[in-house]
Amino acid sequence: MFEMMTGMINNIFFIIFPIVLYQMLAGAGKRNFFVDYRVTMTILFSISIILCMVFPYQILTDDYIFDLRQVPLIVGALYGGPVISAVLFLVSAIGRILIGGDGMYIAVLNLFVVAAGVPFLRPAYMRMSRGKKVATVFIISILSLLFNMFAGHLLFGDPIHDIINIWLMLMLNQGMMIVLTALLIEHIVRQELLLNTLMKHEKLESVSHFAAAVSHELRNPMQSIKGFIQLMQAYDYSRDKQLEFHETILDEINSAESLIDDYLIYAKPVYGELDRMSVNDEVCGVLKLLGPYANSLGVELFCHPAESEIYIRGDRQKFRQAMVNIIRNGVESMPEGGEMIARIKVQASKVIVEIADQGVGMTKEEVERLGEPYFSNKIKGTGLGMMVTYSVIHQMKGIIIVNSEKGLGTVFKLVFPRLE
Homologous superfamily of 275-417 in CATH? Predict the structure, then answer.
């Protein structure tokens, strides 16, 4: 009994292992089990068949040695198609011939019938519901074993009533195993389908956010330009007034171009030239530049540079823009005033810029969404500023760590590789 259980467990492991390995290694969004990794899965299923035959087990009597080689053969034929079925048949047939013994010819004939007939069911099988697929593989398994039973009766004269109990156990054993295998495969296929659908949905959602943000931001300058052009068409303004309108129109066009440039920063993997720059100078320079704006809102800015000069590689203009976005957001998050402190630190080969405010703070969910298109904590915000900030920092091979709590302020930690 112990040997039977050991052999059965071994066979089950030989069958399940390739399927689990597929789930671990398959690329995201793969929907066609077996087909997407045809060669690899054929090799793995061939090994499963060989191992099942090498480690068989007995049921009820020592006269019948049994294994689960038909499970990977049937599954491979249904999910892989005729070519896979032919390869698996050759592997199983050669293995069975090498093992030899009584019933070899019946076994090879049975394998041939399964390998030749099952692939014709594949088109219909792939369109079935999960329940019908399970029923189909179970029926195929039972029919295959019935073929063996009646062939043995005809060739060896074994009375059906003497062997029916054994074959019923074999049918139940193999039937349950192939049903479990089919359910596992269908679960994997369903998970991959859901993942693929989710990936497409996220892409479409990202596109819709971009479209909404672009249309929202471009509408204002476009309406201004349209209004001034309509005024000049309707009224005969003086030359000086027309030049004033022209200047305003050009300002609105520049504003629209700046917006488009911001989106290009997010879309392009490289923007501008990456130069050696002093972190102390750049960070403290931005805080000095925004000092008057912060003071007008009752916010004091402080910069604590590193003790020695440290350098990183980046685009100065875009790095300043990223810093401006973070600092402005921090300043605007303190409606009652407060302090914002920037600290520059060095840890081994890394440079850390910490920017801490005393603002309203954010929830964990809001922190996780920072940098997403069209997400903003501001009433009229589009999330474009933080989206650009994240893109710029990532282009500089940096990372952004945000710690925040409602009512207790926010700390932005920017980590960059140090440039010697």
Answer: Histidine kinase-like ATPase, C-terminal domain (3.30.565.10)
Q: Is the dihedral of CA 289, 276, 351, 264 positive or negative?
A: positive
Say which DSSP state 301 is in. Answer: E
Helix (H) or strand (E) segment spanning residue 412: strand 409-417
Q: Kindly give, in sequence order, each residue whose CB lies less than 8 Å from that of residue 10, ignoring residues fewer than 6 positions away.
A: 51, 55, 57
Task: Please say whether the beta carbons of 303 and 335 come within 8 A.
Answer: no
Closest residue by Cα to residue 64 from 156, 195, 187, 178: 156
Please tell me the least confidently modeled range out of 130-139, 224-233, 255-264.
255-264
Identify the three-state secondary structure at position 409.
strand
Indicate if 275-417 has the same CATH topology as 2-200.
Answer: no
Residues 37/86, Cβ–Cβ less than 8 Å: no
Phi and psi dihedrals of 117, rounded to 5?
Answer: -90, -40
Sheet containing 338-347: give its strands across. Answer: 299-304, 338-347, 350-356, 409-417, 399-405
CA–CA separation, 277 and 418 (whole Å): 11
The model's pTM: 0.53
Residue 65, H or E segment = strand 65-66
The confidence score (pLDDT) of residue 415 equals: 92
Q: Quick one: which H or E segment has residue 326? A: helix 316-332
What dihedral angle (degrees, nearest 10) is formed by the CA atoms of 40, 42, 47, 50? -170
Helices (H) and strands (E) in the chain, counts: 14, 9
Give the model confidence (pLDDT) of 324-360 as tens digits: 888 888 888 898 889 999 999 998 889 999 999 988 8
How far apart are alpha carbons 169 and 171 in whole angstroms? Answer: 5
Q: What is the CATH number of domain 207-267?
A: 1.10.287.130
Q: Where are the domains of the chain?
A: 2-200, 207-267, 275-417
Query: Which tens digits make up the pLDDT trace of 286-305?
Result: 888 888 888 888 999 999 99
Residue 257, token pair as written in the block: 């171009």
Read off the tokens for 186. Answer: 């269908």
The token duo for 13 is: 């492991």
**CATH for 2-200 (1.10.1760.20, 1.20.120.80, 3.40.605.10, 1.10.3720.10):** 1.10.1760.20
Q: What's the start-to-end Cα distance of the chain, in Å?
A: 70
Rounded CA separation 396/99 (Å)? 63
Q: What is the DSSP letter of 349?
A: T
